[in-house]
Amino acid sequence: MRRDAVAARITAFSDPEAVARYADGPPRFVPGYGVMQSMTTLLLAERVPEDARVLVVGAGGGLELKVFAQAHARWTFDGIDPSAEMLKLAEQTLGPLATRARLHQGYIDGAPQGPFDAATCLLTLHFMDIEERRRTAIEVRRRLKRGSPFVVAHLSFPQGEDERALWLSRHAAFLIASGLEPEKAANARVAIDTQTHILDPEQDEAILREAGFSNVSLFYAAFSFRGWVAYA
Fold first, then answer.
1. Residues of 190-218 as b/e, b for ≥16 C-beta within 10 angstroms?
2. Which uninterrupted H or E stretch holds 13?
């Protein structure tokens, strides 16, 4: 991720209180979050060996790591994230499963070279600007075995002026419907508008293809979030 673009995110996720609350957020505020994780696991499993080695980009918190590890007892993982505090939380989340995961602090450059049998990047790419997103996709592709799946999911919706405002309003409405106070939902809308890099779905797909991935397929669409699977 570009360093200045993620500074606010790293600062927020270095706050012990924010880190302690993190695990409650995605299941409440990302529509279909648990189902998206399950679908991701299935998409990986249909292409990888029983002892797959999986690269997890944006592994802080450990939520998807735990889902993957519980579903497949012989998979091992390398997870990378810029926040040391979030990586500590990932280790706590994994508990005894942590012996199957190596956690690395940093950006995609600091990830092991692989080659990996699969990779994921969930709820992370929208923190990167378009050039950093392209570079990350290229670096992930370079670390994958030929034909390996790469699953991504993040904020992605049309970026025309009127459409962007509408989708931001819809996202805030979903947060309120999920139990967040209206004032906090309004603050979240502003943060998303100013601190994330949301692209048109067509741009998201193009970045994967330009990085060398093929058979890019949409598998998840839930309000303001989209998810794709592509193959190296």
1. eebeeebbbbeeeebbebbeebebeebee
2. none
Distance CA 174, CA 19 (A): 22
CA–CA dist 36, 82 (Å, integer): 23
Give the global pTM: 0.91
pLDDT band at 144 (very low <50, low <70, confident <90, very high): very high
pLDDT digits (tens, 9 = 90+) for 10-27: 445 555 555 555 656 788
* Partners of residue 230 on adjacent β-strands: 150
Under DSSP, the state recorded for 104 is: E
- DSSP result, 123-156: S-GGGS-HHHHHHHHHHHHHTBPTT-EEEEEEEB
φ and ψ of 219, to 5 deg? -120, -10
55 pLDDT more than 60 = yes
The tens digit of pLDDT for each residue in 159-189 reads 988 999 999 999 999 999 999 999 999 999 9
The residue among 28, 103, 107, 3 whose CA lies nearest residue 61 is 103
